[in-house]
Amino acid sequence: MAAKPPAGDPVQDAPQVAAPKHAAAGLPAIGHTLKIAQAQMGVVRTAQTLLKVNQKDGFDCPGCAWPEGDKRHTAEFCENGAKAVAEEATLRRVTPEFFAAHPVADLASRSGYWLGQQGRITQPMYLPEGAERYEAVSWERAFEVIAEELTALDSPDEALFYTSGRTSNEAAFLLQLFARAYGTNNLPDCSNMCHESSGSALAETIGIGKGSVSLEDMHQADLIIVAGQNPGTNHPRMLSALEKAKHAGAKIISVNPLPEAGMERFKNPQTPQGMIKGAVLNDLFLQIRIGGDQALFRLLNKLILDTDGAVDELFVREHTHGYEEFAATAREADWDQTLTATGLTRPEIEQALALVLASKRTIVCWAMGLTQHKHAVPTIREVVNFLLLRGNIGRTGAGVCPVRGHSNVQGDRTMGIFERPAAAFLDALDKEFGIVSPRHHGYDVVRSIRAMRDGKAKVFFAMGGNFVAASPDTDVTEAAMRRTSLTVHVSTKLNRSHAVTGRRALILPTLGRTDKDVQAGGKQVVTVEDSMGMVHASRGNLTPASPHLLSEPAIVARMARAVLGGESEINWEEFEKDYATIRDRIAHVVPGFEDFNTRVAKPGGFSLPHAPRDERRFPTHTGKANFTAAPVEFPALPEGRLLLQTLRSHDQYNTTIYGLDDRYRGIKGGRRVVMVNPEDAAELGLADGSYTDLVSEWKDGVERRAPGFRVVHYPTARGCAAAYYPETNVLVPLDATADVSNTPVSKSVVVRLEQSPTA
Ligand SMILES: Nc1nc2c(c(=O)[nH]1)N[C@H]1C(S)=C(S)[C@@H](COP(=O)(O)OP(=O)(O)OC[C@H]3O[C@@H](n4cnc5c(=O)[nH]c(N)nc54)[C@H](O)[C@@H]3O)O[C@H]1N2
Ligand SMILES: Nc1nc2c(c(=O)[nH]1)N[C@H]1C(S)=C(S)[C@@H](COP(=O)(O)OP(=O)(O)OC[C@H]3O[C@@H](n4cnc5c(=O)[nH]c(N)nc54)[C@H](O)[C@@H]3O)O[C@H]1N2
Ligand SMILES: [Mo]
Fold it and tell me: Looking at the CA of 465, which ligand is closest?
């Protein structure tokens, strides 16, 4: 990775730094939204598009998975949702002439930001073996190439089918059906790098890997703890829910190594009052050390156990399992160890306890700050212990709330995008389609990379996403990808993964959420599931970026016909013509989707069943909600090192870079910054504004280096540092993954900072 912009890339990374902001949204957010939207879409298309975001007759915002309320505002989107829409609805185009002018080597030398800014891809493109440039190709030939490679493999398990979480339920269902009919469970997805730890911890403890609260619960809670999440940037509409809860009397605690502006003060753009003053959201900010959350929740649990009458004994007796063992372990929790692990003070934890004990209805929300650690699964299990102790699951205004990322990542999993599917799911699938799905598990993301690296996987197919940039250990991942015989990307826009190819490569351009989807059977809708298990329809209304685009369901259906040919008795043609026929089959296979077409036609859609939430029934192996008692872990920090978390700026959507500013954190015009506590910086001799290389230290002894980061003195917790992803993915070792969930440890990388001459 270069410290300066790659040659020929006009994007200058020259960060300017000012003091961090203490409020989010408000007028500057509206101005910013309109500027970005109009630059990409022009004035008319901006109005046409933004008024349809998240409306009942419109499309689901391709930004985050936060749910919409039942009452919609005219403008039911946020600044960052508008940026996501503008990126997709842009008027810029990447044509075959573009590819003729830019050989693959040139694309590989560009920044991700530059690639994304070129616009929507207009035609299928093919990179033949040995060629320097992608060339236009017909759809027929593209599917033939895929069929040639897939049918030539020694085993179906040499193929990988990756999904990023924007894919609709219909496309996801078809993709997993195709993969299983073809013969593999190799269905890695972005969730493996995201909320897998939440799914693992929740499935074991409450019996379902999804959150248990609704938007209404948020509004009725007494206490909401937001741990390891930055809603002001990544789920801005969540701030409205927090504000509403607050008005109704809720208290809010945020647990984070960084003071995040949105949690400090939220200026609601939908109310005049909010625009001027805004609401203070945090009642208590616990500035925790990276990775200290399990220790914090463990001590809170001990303190609850030590308080007379604080445990909901009736709930514990009737609905839980493993209490005694857990309680014995938790009683041993130790103040000193907790203060070391968390960096918090005793009075801070006592204040938190007081709020916890005063609350009858508690919700814990979390995102990547809890999931991307070695001990992420035991950390989330400890959160579950915390909620179970006081009966806070399956009660109004209470519960677990893992806040999902991609707008349909939860739905994709519900549709069977999973490398370790349940036998019951496969049985239902086989029965419906007369196929024999493989029963052995497939590869997740990290195992897929190893398989490509070791020559065990040879065809890589991606339904969206940007695999090489989003995955850990960038150099290893890129080398692995280059070893394959074919890489195929179904994409809306250019990204790094198109420039890191197998022996042959295809780019298959597709419709996005905002695009009108017309098939032989008429205008189509697709469906998605939000973070709270609501399923609803999404209809694009824009003329597609080019007449050559195919929808995602059409691409899978045609690929299936080309690959499976006469072997398949599945009527793929019918699926392509009319997606309602796909939904009819989903209704037969996936529990909770009975009568799918009728129910999804209702404005606002329907809610999926959730046994713990709806009936306090816990479908676990014990038939009860399980307390667990793992030893407390927290990252060890060698002398002179920092614990680096890799996170998102305000101007990006994962690997899609909208701009070079991180407004709330006071950073402008560049992304290669590392935020360090001023006292740590002083000890390490790192002046604000100086340049440093980040070097990660891992037990394999391999040197992983990201050069040329500007040091920013920033109020993060002691011993901690923060820098943006994906620039820092090069530092995350492939084998550094969470126990059980195998999620890359992107939030605690031990680094040393070495002064670099790059300034
Ligand atoms: N605009 C926009 N929206 C997005 C995305 C985007 O990139 N841009 N991405 C989407 C996706 S896929 C996802 S998964 C979500 C991600 O949403 P977030 O999880 O909010 O995203 P991150 O930027 O990774 O922020 C992690 C937060 O956790 C904190 N943190 C880090 N380590 C720890 C820790 O050890 N303990 C605690 N308590 N806190 C910690 C960080 O300081 C930061 O506030 O957002 C989704 N929405
Ligand atoms: N170091 C570090 N690494 C991380 C993380 C981190 O916090 N730190 N976060 C992880 C997380 S939470 C996630 S979810 C992953 C994200 O990993 P991915 O989901 O793989 O990455 P994205 O950047 O969201 O993918 C963007 C690309 O998707 C394509 N695209 C956009 N819309 C559509 C569409 O409608 N259809 C299709 N077919 N393609 C579309 C565009 O071509 C765009 O370039 O990254 C993970 N990696
Ligand atoms: Mo994510």
Answer: 2
